[in-house]
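So, is this right?
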Amino acid sequence: MADSSPAAPPQLLDDPQEWLAFGRPCTPAGSPLPAHTADAVQGAPESSTWDSHVVLEGMHCAACALTIEDALRAVPGVLQADVSAATRRARVVWQPGRVLPSQWMKAVQNAGYRAMPAMDAFARAQRQRESRRALWRWLVAGFCMMQVMMYAWPAYVAQPGDLSGEMEQLLRWASWVITLPMVVFSCGPFFASALRDVRLRRVSMDLPVALGMAITFVVSTAGTFDPSGIFGKEVYYDSLTMFVFFLLTGRWLELRLRDRTAGALEAVMNRLPDSVERRDDATGAFARVATRRLVVGDTIRVLPGEAFPADGCITAGNTHADEALLTGESTPVARPVGSRVTAGSYNLQSPVEVLVEGTGGQTRFAQIVALMESASLQKPRLALLADRIARPFLVAVLLAAGLAAAWWWPSDPGHALMVAVAVLIVTCPCALSLATPVAMLTAAGTLARHGVLVRNLQGLEALAHVDTLVFDKTGTLTRDRMALQVVRAAQGWTADDALALAAALARHSMHPASRAVVAAAPESARGPGGRWAVAHLQEDAGLGLSAAVSDNTGVVPDCKVWLGSARHAGVAPQQGAAALQVVLSAQGPDGVPVELARFDLVEDLRSEAPAVVAALRKEGVAVQLLSGDRLAAVQRVASQAGIAHAQGECSPQGKLAALRALQAGGRQVAMVGDGLNDGPVLAGAHVSFAFGRAVPLAQSRADFVVLGDSLALVPQTVLLARRTLRVVRQNLWWAAGYNALCVPLAVAGWMPAWLAGLGMALSSLLVVLNAARLARGLPALPALADAEAEASIAGKAQPLPLNPPKTTLEPV
């Protein structure tokens, strides 16, 4: 296992076997390769393009992100570089034939920062060390501030003549001694960042802050060493220590809050264990190896509390698994011997042995991580605007501070420099740069915890403006299975007898109609050893089944039985039937098929669909249904779901045309589909959802992927998007209003440095705290609860009943 700790040389990451630890092969356009292609590339990685993710150390703002992007893009062989100031992560698309990881990481280091593999344990340890260092700097600043305020207090309360010159000078020297360790230790990162910026001839948000600290300390030091000089009138150690303390308080709390909110994304990405116990085929003993060393065919042992590192089949042991990441459902799932487990789910109960069947990019977990990494590095439109104005704004801040100092210098040089310090500090655009990305990433993390993946952060902004939502039918409003609605048995046959005979044939078929018949049959009829013995079974694709059937009880003579369409069963079809019918017939004495029963099947409408439609309408969102199915079936589903406008028999092109007609009418349209055949319409909508169980995630064109099976996540996501946009607007208005109010006060000399520092820290902290409200969970839907209650009272929430006729006729 490669060591990427601070002491390890970055050249160790140039080993192609280590690249999968923090990246994956992809096409030149930057999209991940299919699993089988990725496997082929692993043998010869130099021939491909790689998509790698790294964690960055030393960055604080949007200007830092732009600097790192410029440094990476200047490296030959780096095709693309995206850096997020909110998550402090970078995505680098590079060509192994032209550049190696150590080279583009060296470019990041030359720019004054440090890059570490994003999926590496040392990166997590480094973030913990950074948090501890930030806490120590804050504690030192707090101690120094209290001591300096104690020495400064006599000067504030003393009357003229109370303090002698010697006593005042002694208090100044004591304040200088106490302030010095704070300047060296607590302010060290600000000065280091500013010196780096000056050396590289660039501007970041730490530069004006460091200038303010340096000016205040130099002016106060000059007043201490030369009380009779131009700066000897007053010292500002109290303002400096208070400013630094407030600033470090804001940054430390901001760091903690970001770890708890937007950090939810990273918690999911780092879900796999770093190592796992693998069985040695030679000795049979288990030894711990790095997870990325696993290959298909290995047998591993997963202990309780550990995450499954790969997809596989349990060969020994029984347990329960937490699959909330993959399904959105928090209820543990039983996993006995022979069942399959997925990478990223947690073993909850007991040790199990698992035969590895899929690793790396082959797993669904890898697809989920790829989507989340891509989304976390995207920059919404408002964030791009903030990034573009960050550098020009900082240059304007420096000019404004210089002009303010020049204006006040003739009257009082010391006061002039402190006015410049206040302007430098109060106008730092940290809050502006954080306003949009922190809110968007917090919302994305909340959705991920509840089973909705955000593939496109711009989709959150678009979804907040949606006024029309279009559903596909099959796999979206309905489940991927059918349900038995009515059994119409012939005379002499009960519903249970007819179902038992039909299930004896149907259990040999995987057709949705056959599975619906088996699911509705009595438990005793679903497996072998029942009343009916089946032989010579044949299945005609798309038509039905036929077999020779014998009755183990001897009541019914041996005969040939058909199950399928009316034509396949040899009987007349029923005219005007609204539902899909499956017919059971048997060979009569004269060789002509005789009808035994008809089974009316309907698509299994999601139980929450009517409540979801009602909730959307209550929130002002119009709901429509577009489907390629028969018009009668579409209208029936629309009627059950409470949708007034429905179109059936639509081709993919027809769906797209209907969608564009809505958009031409000024509607903001969201599309909800299963992702299988809805690619054009999902891509054409303003924003789109796909239910992820039905489609490979890497191929989905939707902006949101619903991993679970609950339709209620759609309206909840709409409401969260609206709430997110409100939070973004609040943050932007606060940041703009704060600067509009405080800059004139600072220029006029009415805002001391400590108050400017407090305002700067509070502005950034307020932005993060406001965004943290989005992490509380998905919005509640009162309309959904009311609609479910009404449906339950009306009996609509109950399963579709079986209605077997009571009449009996002579057996065949």
The longest strand covers residues 593-605. The two ends are 72 Å apart (CA to CA).
